[in-house]
């Protein structure tokens, strides 16, 4: 995108901010939920390998970046040029192996250097900067990933799997104690351990569960379709019948 096109886009957003009653009333807080939604729509397009949709969704996300900035500029907080300067300086600072004389052996060392540079920038903890509102599986994955970069990690994949089994057994024993809080904690530990194991396998747990959710929706949709085609409601069918169609759906999804 040329500078002229980008500047024209920014001016369009600024005009909307001045002349459109709805745009004029918005705040960074009022549109933050929509920003999150747009980010997830980008992910949906990527998951569906739909590049035409991805192009549109990235445009929507870009609109939010510019709109948030224009709103902030109205209160003299910062401008779009300051946003660009900030990310430009960060990219150069955190890539000394590209823009400086630092030598790295591969991607893992790049990640390690990245975290060390963050601490030099003033972070109090290695775990700072991971958004609280990230989906829990994704946040657990990032917490573990960051800790592992300084050596706080299991030595072998087998050790991680043993921990998964241990947490499952603790959860099962906790069921008998009739303590909701304790059981909730133990279930959380099981999820955390499974996230860790998936990390060792090189699998992003958020991506994996999102795909499984879609698979469930597709297969259950097949069950609904078959029962509807028989002229009945889902509530009128039996579990045995639903299981039959569910098994059939596995050949399709």
Layout: helices, strands, pairs:
Elements lengths: L2 H17 L1 H5 L6 H16 L3 H24 L5 H14 L2 H4 L7 H14 L15 H13 L8 H18 L5 H21 L4 H25 L9 H11 L4
Helix pairs in contact: 1-4, 3-4, 8-10, 9-10, 11-12
Overview features:
mainly alpha, Helix Hairpins, 72% helix, 253 residues
Write a structural description.
By secondary structure, this protein is mostly helical. The protein has 4 domains: 3-92, MazG-like (Helix Hairpins, Orthogonal Bundle); 97-124, no CATH class; 136-203, Helix Hairpins; 207-249. The protein is 72% helix and 0% strand. The protein is built from 12 helices and no strands. α9 packs antiparallel against α10 (180-200) and α11 (205-229) crosses α12. The radius of gyration is 24 Å and the shape is extended.
In short:
This protein has 253 residues and is mainly alpha-helical.
Secondary-structure element sequence? Answer: HHHHHHHHHHHH
Distance between the termini: 39 Å
Count all strands and give the number.
0
Count of helical regions: 12
Strand content: under 5%
Indicate the CATH topology of the largest domain.
Answer: Helix Hairpins
Structural class assignment: mainly alpha
CATH superfamily of the largest domain: MazG-like
Report Rg: 24 Å
CATH class of the largest domain: Mainly Alpha
What count of domains describes the coordinates? 4
General form: extended
CATH architecture term of the largest domain: Orthogonal Bundle
């Amino acid at each position: 995108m040329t500078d002229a096109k980008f500047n024209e886009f920014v001016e369009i957003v600024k005009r909307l901010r001045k002349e459109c009653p709805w745009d004029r009333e918005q705040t960074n807080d009022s549109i933050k939920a929509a920003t999150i939604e747009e980010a997830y729509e980008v992910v949906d397009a990527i998951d569906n390998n739909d590049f035409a949709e991805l192009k549109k969704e990235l445009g929507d996300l870009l609109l939010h970046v510019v709109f948030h900035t224009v709103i902030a500029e109205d209160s003299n907080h910062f401008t779009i040029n300051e946003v660009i300067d900030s990310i430009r300086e960060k990219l150069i600072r955190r890539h000394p192996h590209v823009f400086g004389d630092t030598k790295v052996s591969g991607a893992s060392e790049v990640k390690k250097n990245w975290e060390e540079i963050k601490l030099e920038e003033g972070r109090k903890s290695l775990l700072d900067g991971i958004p609280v509102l990230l989906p829990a599986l994704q946040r657990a994955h990032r917490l573990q990933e960051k800790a592992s970069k300084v050596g706080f990690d299991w030595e072998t994949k087998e050790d991680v799997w043993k921990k998964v089994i241990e947490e499952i057994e603790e959860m099962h024993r906790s069921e008998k104690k009739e303590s909701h809080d304790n059981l909730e904690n133990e279930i959380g530990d099981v999820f955390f351990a499974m996230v860790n194991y998936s990390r060792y396998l090189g699998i992003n747990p958020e991506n994996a569960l999102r795909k499984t959710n879609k698979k469930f929706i597709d297969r259950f949709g097949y069950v609904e379709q078959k029962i509807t085609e028989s002229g009945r409601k889902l509530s009128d069918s039996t579990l045995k019948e639903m299981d039959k169609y569910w098994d059939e759906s596995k050949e399709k999804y």
